[in-house]
Amino acid sequence: MTAHNVGWVMTDLEPVVSNRADVRPALIVAAVGATWVLLVHATGLLGDASGITFLLLGLGAVAAATVGIHRWKPEPRWPWWLVLVAMILFFFGGLTREAFHTLGDLTPSRSLLPDLLSLPGYVLLGAGFLVLARLGRRGRGGGVDATLDALVAALAALAVAWVYLINPALSVQHVGVNVGLSTRLLLIAYPAMSVFLVAIGAQVAFSSGGWRSYSFRMVMAAFVCLLLGDVIYMLVETHVATVPRQLIDVPYALSFVAFISALLHPSMRRLTDPVRLDETAPSRRRLALVALALTVPAIVTLTRTQPAIGERVVLAAIVLALTGTAVYRMVRALREHADSAARLAHQATHDALTGLPNRVYLHEYLVHLLGEPSVGHPSVALLFLDLDRFKLVNDTLGHGMGDELLIAVANRLRKNTRPEDVVGRIGGDEFLIVVDGVRDAKRAHEIAERTRLGFMTPFSVRGAEIPVSSSVGVAMYGVDEEVDAESMLRDADTAMYEAKDAGGDAVAVFDASMRDRVAQRLALESEMRHALERGEFHLHFQPIVRSMDSRVAGLEALLRWSHPTLGNISPELFVPIAEDTGLIVELGAWVLDQACAELATLRQTVRSADELTVSVNLSARQLRDDSLLESVARSLLRHQLPAGALCLELTESTLMENMSLITRMLATLRECGVRVSVDDFGTGYSSLAYLKQLPVDEVKIDRSFVTDLGENDPNASLVAAVVAIAGSLGVSTVAEGVETLEQAERLRELGCDEAQGFYFSRPVPPERLPGVLEDLGLVAEPRLRIVRNPA
Fold first, then answer.
1. CATH classification at residue 434
2. Closest Cα to residue 565, out of 525, 536, 590, 532?
3. Are 78 and 197 within one domain?
4. How far is CA 189 from the centre of its chain?
5. Is 131 within a domain?
6. Does 529 reside within a domain?
7. Residue 345 falls inside a structural domain
8. Domain count, the chain
9. Are residues 552 and 446 in the same domain?
10. Is the CB of residue 606 less than 8 Å from the CB of residue 576?
11. Are residues 212 and 246 in the same domain?
């Protein structure tokens, strides 16, 4: 990064300014101002320069504050305006003090005008930085605590200063003047308020992320110089010390210089950057300060013997104020600790997004219910609710809309359940409802059904209507059953997946058969992990024929699993397991390579099979995998097949899961020459309008539209519409599930390009393919592929 880069580079707590031109004025002011004060003003090199020094510093403070506030735009700005006004008051207070010669004047005729100008400046300065301390603190009551801590420190310092310094210095015997109580209090107010300001600066350090910044260091330097100047002034005022005239104002002058430099530096706008404080307990540093302050009255009392009545009155007032402030601060600290513990307990047992009880809370609640004797409430029902296709909301509308939808769902579930029922969210789009006092499974099913029907009204999120359905699983605990909370959660989860497998938007009540199916699924998953390496998977192929003459144009590869003990396992059982576990990626790559290998063999061994193609099914998981393109290219290259010999099939529901991502992947495949087909068209969420957007070569009309296809079948008009629109877009059509001659002839009349089904041939192993191809005959020319007009 060069010196000419503009902007802020953020670190943990402090921004690093990358443009040197921004920081140069502040550094120049600090260097030049300090040099002038120490080498010219303090040494008297040019004579008495106090007048010109404070004139320049006063005007400089006004200009620096105005420029800094407008250029760096700190938020909020008004505390900095208070600082500016305080600088102006200090400036005029110093001028009037010089004009009225009040320094060292302890007589009753002393003018109060300089003090009436200066003391409000301390108040405004303290108020401005109290606001900055509050802004930097994330916890509740940060501004009040900062004020109390600073007040404790100031009162403790005041008690010590009064007893050991101020009161002895103002005694009659020392100065020869009977100094009134009001004058004494006026004089001690300066160092006390300076201590208060230093303590406020410490609070900014403890509570904000700006404490490492240049501006904060300059502000703290200004506060310390102000305190030093007040102490020196008090010593000079009370004739305790004699200090050369030009040195008395040096701390105040340096304080002005530090403030001007801080206001000109860009880091002033980051002074109140909040940091995450540990809210589990009050700050040890601040409580140590309070504890130390509380020892002051005891020390003062033990060391003072027979003080005067006036001294005792003032000291008693200071000690009383100090003790009261410290006790109140301790009470607030303890209350904050209790509130923090309560907040942490709530956070540990409740969901941060919806505010509902989380899994931990629900588990403990279930343990409590299941451990109670069943008196008057023989059963506990657990409803496990999962939103159907919630991923589509996140993918299409964004995670922000998804979160707001989850909040709306939580609110509706609260509204639609009894006050005694407990509604919770255990993660993602999964919710639990614990219902106590359910008589039987029928009643539990009714409650679950009512909950499901509560989603019939769409949700309104940011002005948009979002339809949502849910799958609900129900598990019950009966009087005579022994069950624990974990088992009940597992059973409700199992029932929910049963409802999802039924198509979603349904209710399922758990029974023992579900547990058996889960056990079977787990067993299949375990066996599947070794089935590929043991050679238990193999392919069957079903011919795809041209409708006009029933000759074979291509083959569809279908995966089969022959287990040595379980026998032939249906793809409807093992394919969903492979997709859920991620094994489908490895298994799909094997299917792709094996299908290409068998096609290459057929092209070499079967006469006129040069234009034969093969179709392979893909899952959504494979399409999201980065290795798909590599797998396709490697298989085609290894078996020396042209890209047009391969057709990749995917269901339209897979397309709709993440349409933009999958569409880009399919477009890349088609650019390489690979054909793309949409399987089971018409059964998912898409429509004919989507064909215009999808980069596909063919659609496979689902078998449900082919069954009972005849002259008077209403499906005929639907098939005709698909064929006509697909043809206008350059997309070919393939009908699945053709089982009769009548269906085949009707599809030919409707203009369907190709068909497949038992009428032509069942899926057969590779060794039987040559005979099937010979019986049906092969299409001599390549399968038609129409390139769409980009217009």
1. 3.30.70.270
2. 536
3. yes
4. 49
5. yes
6. yes
7. no
8. 3
9. no
10. no
11. yes
Pairing state between β 507-509 and 470-477: parallel
Q: What is the pLDDT of residues 304-360, one digit of tens each?
A: 555 566 666 777 777 777 778 777 877 777 787 777 778 888 888 999 999 999 999
Report the pLDDT value the prediction gives residue 17, as an integer from 0 to 100. Answer: 41
On whether both 456 and 318 belong to a single domain, the answer is no
Stretch (H or E) spanning 677: strand 675-681
Task: Give the span between the Cα atoms of 741 and 442, in whole angstroms.
Answer: 48
Whole-number Å distance between alpha carbons of 606 and 770: 7
AA letter at 589 = A
CB 645, CB 602: distance < 8 Å: no
What pLDDT digit, counting tens, does each position of 2-16 carry? Answer: 333 333 333 333 344
305, 336, 367: which is the final residue of a domain? 336
Taking the CA atoms of residue 192, residue 194, residue 198 and residue 204 in that order, the dihedral angle to the nearest 10 degrees is 100
Phi and psi, residue 770, nearest 5°: -55, -40
Beta bridge pairs of residue 650? 678
| Dmax (CA) of the chain | 133
Predicted local distance difference test score (pLDDT) of residue 784: 58
* The domain boundary residue, chosen from 336, 369, 402: 336
Closest CA to 124 of 153, 84, 77, 70: 84
693: left (phi over 0), alpha (psi -120 to 50) or beta: alpha
- Distance CA(477)–CA(381), nearest Å, equals 6
For every residue of 372-425, which 3-state class applies, written as one string? Answer: CCCCCCCCEEEEEEEECCHHHHHHHHCHHHHHHHHHHHHHHHHHCCCCCCEEEE
Closest CA to 766 of 536, 534, 542: 542
| Paired strand residues for 698 | 677, 732
SS3 per-residue string spanning 498-538 = HHHHCCCCCEEECCHHHHHHHHHHHHHHHHHHHHCCCCCEE
Please tell me the distance from the alpha carbon of residue 86 to that of residue 124, in angstroms, as a whole number.
6
85 domain-assigned: yes
Answer whether 696's CB lies under 8 Å from 677's CB.
yes
Give the residue-averaged pLDDT of 767-791. Answer: 75
Cβ count within 10 A of residue 132? 28
Spatial separation of the C-alpha atoms in residues 531 and 517, rounded to whole Å: 20
448 and 399 assigned to the same domain: yes
d(CA 396, CA 408): 18
Domain interval for residue 304: 21-336
Domain match, 207 and 312 both: yes
Which pLDDT belongs to residue 213?
A: 80
Q: Same domain for 319 and 390?
A: no
Contacts of 249 (CB under 8 A, 6+ apart): 41, 50, 53, 54, 94, 229
Residue 425 has pLDDT above 60, yes or no: yes
Q: Which of 109-113, 545-549, 570-574, 628-632 has the lowest mean pLDDT?
A: 109-113
Asked whether the beta carbons of 42 and 249 are under 8 A apart, the reply is: no
